[in-house]
Amino acid sequence: MKKLIAFVLALCLMIPACAALADKLTMGTNAAFPPYEFYEDGQIVGIDAEIAQAIADKLGMELEIVDMEFGALINAVNSGKIDFAMAGMTVTEERLQSVDFSDTYATGIQAIIVKEDSEITSVDDLSKEGATYVIGVQEATTGDIYCTDDFGEDRVKRYKVGADAVEALKTGKVDCVIIDNEPAKSFVATNEGLKILDTEYTQEDYAIAISKDNPDLLEKVNGALAELIADGTVAAIIAKYIPAE
After folding, report:
1. pLDDT 10s digits, 109-140
2. Is omega for the bond preceding 243 within 30 degrees of 0, making it cis?
3. What's the CA gap between 225 and 80, in Å, rounded?
4. Fold of 2-105+207-241
5. Euclidean distance between CA atoms 156 and 145, whole angstroms
6. What are phi and psi of 2, to 5 degrees?
7. Nearest CA among 107, 106, 131, 105 for reference residue 118
8. pLDDT recorded at residue 244
9. Of 67, 78, 142, 190, which one has the greatest count of Cβ atoms within 10 A?
């Protein structure tokens, strides 16, 4: 009887612990993508971090954010290492083969960064006949995917983070950098002699990547996201980091 009582007590102690684990929502990101995710005073902050926290609050769950390489995010979702990926991630046909995506919560633009005295004056210069301009991108991003499709492997140089691609532009290793517009603004603001071309490369929609094996989470995230969009929370978060021009 004593052994049975001890077993029951141990089981009761384990159940709250298991429940607590189930109440955690783990977000994977690449925190080198301001203003969507970046470090401030040792903490990951930004648009995605705040929207994710708002979603977790709606669901009554604790949020944990894990920083990793952008190219590892989808595999981390599918392996269960993280519950979802939120990193200014664009919905593409290729990614849809691996993961499901939430409803869109923001629209992004792929911008072109060049030196102020660059011969490249518009997006058309990259594809004109005989063009050999080398393009710097962050690996595994849509900038990487689209540029490789449009211009071929030989004209694309991949870097772990956008800052490395920008440094390559400054030192003449690439002729331009194609990256999302908001990080592009940050890079140009902190690096003299660079500018963003007036003509954008492409537009895209940002969404949250979730495992195809977790439709319940997808439904819950979409429900919370719909409420946060309807009540203006998402718009307020975005406006906090990207003031209307």
Report:
1. 999 999 999 999 999 999 999 999 999 999 99
2. no
3. 22
4. D-Maltodextrin-Binding Protein; domain 2 (3.40.190)
5. 10
6. -60, -40
7. 131
8. 67
9. 142
